[in-house]
């Protein structure tokens, strides 16, 4: 009887061990993380009626160490900490970029990234295919910033601060680019926010060359310091502003699954015949021509086919569009919809619900494992705008997070 009892005990122990192993593994993989939060302010920037301000702030406050970023949210506020409404301070964009800098190196004030010393700064781009310095940011939004979800779900995260590949004598830093336009008292709000060249009285590019034929508007015509035309006799005070940004993260561990950032551009025109492989010419901006006068059915459709070097599972997706945007869709090679993202337009006056402005973008959080991109798969990004009137300097970007494993 004793031997029989001992046998049952042994079998029970084996069974418990067998059942507990996968559960322990699952717990390790999906354990709860302690999320940390930091709230920071950018350096001050000063606005006055009609002014376009595009400032570059280097080595800004940011969480340190080997971490997984979980979200980045931001908004422009005034001196008293109040949210600045879009009908006064239009958020063209804010961008967050990562780089290595030589220890002790001080970035010259307000120089463009490409003007910094190449021997002292190494830029760390996302995994997207755009070249020539375009769209390398880790995070970035525009007027939709207050109503667009940015959180990375579950046990996924954007890995930074791992120390791998850091050259001796260098350290990780972060840069903010904040582009805001003060539209108080301007003649034509949309003309100013779409950076129409005639509204800013700009006829030459930064190098002094005449603008390309047909260039109606875009970033070239609303650089830092440019002034949009004001109504006759309008006067207004200068005001101090800041970008208030909130970062959430968890400490890195084996339980976190890393995701890659891809930013796809509807203006990307791939050159497959390039001698060293496909080249990506991402224009970032484009114009929408007026095509009809109807109240509906006037549609401008811009699309691009982009081949992904590697695949994985889509964890998050969101598009970026300007006023006039009707939505953007990312398709797989077989035509299936990977993600659709639509602008949310405001209906009021308060900050976060400004009538006529894009105040948010809908996002995609697919069920893990349900949306997969194959290695080498060619995706199609489609950007739709209404075309009852002309729009200049619009964008059709798609930001996705992709995990190689679940």
UniProtKB/TrEMBL annotation:
Highest taxon listed in the record's lineage: Eukaryota
Task: Write the record's keywords in alphabetical order, separated by commas.
Answer: Signal
Pfam family name, one: SURNod19
Keyword Signal assigned to the entry: answer is: yes
Q: Hey, what's the signal peptide range on this chain?
A: 1-26
Keyword hit for Coiled coil? no
Q: Which PANTHER family match?
A: STRESS UP-REGULATED NOD 19 PROTEIN (PTHR33390:SF1)
Q: What is this protein called?
A: Stress up-regulated Nod 19 protein
Native species: Pyrus ussuriensis x Pyrus communis
């Amino acid at each position: 009887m004793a031997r029989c009892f001992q046998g049952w005990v042994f079998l029970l122990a084996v069974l418990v061990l067998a059942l507990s192993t996968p559960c322990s593994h699952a717990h390790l993989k999906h354990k709860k993380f302690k999320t940390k939060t930091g709230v920071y302010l950018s350096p001050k920037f000063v606005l006055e009626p009609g002014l376009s301000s595009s400032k570059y702030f280097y080595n800004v406050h940011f969480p340190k160490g080997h971490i997984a970023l979980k979200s980045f949210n931001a908004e422009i506020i005034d001196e008293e900490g109040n949210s600045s409404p879009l009908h006064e301070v239009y958020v063209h964009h804010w961008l967050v970029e990562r780089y290595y800098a030589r220890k002790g190196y001080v970035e010259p004030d307000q120089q463009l990234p490409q003007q910094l010393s190449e021997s002292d700064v190494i830029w760390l781009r996302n995994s997207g295919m755009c070249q020539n310095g375009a769209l390398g940011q880790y995070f970035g939004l525009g007027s939709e910033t207050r109503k667009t979800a940015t959180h990375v779900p579950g046990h996924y995260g954007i890995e930074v601060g791992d120390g791998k590949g850091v050259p001796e004598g260098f350290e990780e830093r972060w840069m903010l680019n904040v582009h805001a336009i003060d539209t108080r008292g301007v003649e034509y709000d949309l003309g100013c926010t779409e950076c129409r060249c005639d509204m800013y009285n700009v006829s030459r590019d930064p190098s002094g060359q005449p603008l390309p034929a047909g260039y109606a508007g875009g970033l070239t015509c609303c650089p830092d310091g440019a002034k949009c035309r004001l109504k006759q006799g309008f006067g207004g005070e200068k005001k101090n502003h800041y970008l208030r940004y909130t970062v959430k993260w968890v400490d890195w561990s084996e339980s976190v699954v890393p995701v890659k950032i891809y930013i796809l551009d509807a203006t990307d025109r791939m050159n497959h015949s390039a001698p060293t492989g496909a080249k990506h010419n991402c224009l970032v901006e484009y114009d929408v021509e007026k095509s009809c006068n109807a109240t509906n059915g006037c549609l401008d459709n811009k699309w691009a086919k982009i081949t992904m070097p590697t695949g994985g599972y889509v964890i998050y997706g969101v598009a970026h569009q300007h006023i006039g945007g009707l939505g953007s869709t990312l398709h797989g090679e077989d035509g299936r919809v990977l993600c659709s993202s639509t602008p949310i337009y405001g209906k009021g006056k308060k900050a976060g619900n400004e009538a006529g402005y894009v105040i948010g973008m809908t996002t995609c959080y697919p069920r893990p494992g349900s949306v997969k991109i194959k290695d080498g798969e060619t995706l199609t990004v489609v950007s739709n705008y209404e075309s009852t009137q002309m729009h200049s300097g619009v964008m059709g970007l798609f930001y996705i997070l992709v995990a190689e494993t679940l």
